[in-house]
Design a protein that fits this description.
mainly alpha; 10 helices; 82% helix
């Protein structure tokens, strides 16, 4: 299976075909990933940036940045709007329930504390930290932050997020002569960046549990 994937990446279509198919696909995948937080959108943006880096058009990277940030922003707004409906409803909603199921009480409390202290600026950091977007979004929902105010902070967050993962892709594209090599490197680096915070949280959680058992 991995050999087939590498072969598909090696045999990239002409630039015109890449652009005609790539930008709509990038928009669809990133917006879907914002709604369903299991799609690795950062890796998708980095891969698109690698391909754009090796294209002759001087605007390819700009298009990737604009498409990715717009898709992330619209996906976030749609998810927040759906979550607001659950907050207003007496019985909640499956979207709000899905957000709650992805956030532990400790992480929610931490996100609410940061939101109280830093307000909208915390949205920018939440997008840059892997798995940090959903806890902060849930904290905003429970605080009943208006959609317009959330959108102002989220716009800056999506721009910073798209720029960060695009830089990862540019780095991968600049290190290797072939686009497929840069794509593999960018995806690997993106997944590594995403895995480190989760591993750190597990390590800290295990340390706290050990201290509790010791004190008991």
């Amino acid at each position: 299976m991995s050999g087939g994937l590498l072969a598909a990446v090696r045999d990239l279509p002409p630039e015109s075909t890449q652009q005609a198919v790539g930008y709509p696909s990038l928009f669809l995948l990133v917006s879907l990933g914002a709604l369903v937080p299991v799609v690795p959108t950062g890796a998708i943006v980095s891969s698109a940036a690698v391909v754009a880096f090796h294209q002759s058009s001087p605007f390819s990277l700009l298009y990737v940045f604009l498409v990715a940030s717009a898709a992330a922003f619209l996906g976030d707004l749609a998810l927040y709007w759906l979550g607001q409906r659950g907050v207003r409803s007496r019985n909640g909603s499956r979207w709000l329930g899905s957000l709650r199921s992805r956030v532990t009480p400790d992480r929610l409390a931490h996100a609410q504390e940061r939101l109280d202290s830093h307000q909208v600026s915390v949205l920018v950091l939440s997008r840059l930290v892997p798995a940090g977007r959903i806890p902060v979004m849930l904290a905003c929902l429970l605080a009943r932050m208006p959609l317009r105010r959330f959108a102002r902070g989220d716009a800056a967050a999506c721009l910073a997020w798209a720029a960060t993962y695009q830089l990862i892709g540019i780095l991968g594209g600049s290190l290797f002569p072939e686009p497929w090599q840069g794509v593999v490197a960018a995806v690997g680096l993106t997944l590594l960046v995403s895995a480190v915070p989760a591993a750190w949280r597990r390590l800290r959680g295990g340390g706290r549990d050990a201290l509790r058992h010791k004190d008991a």
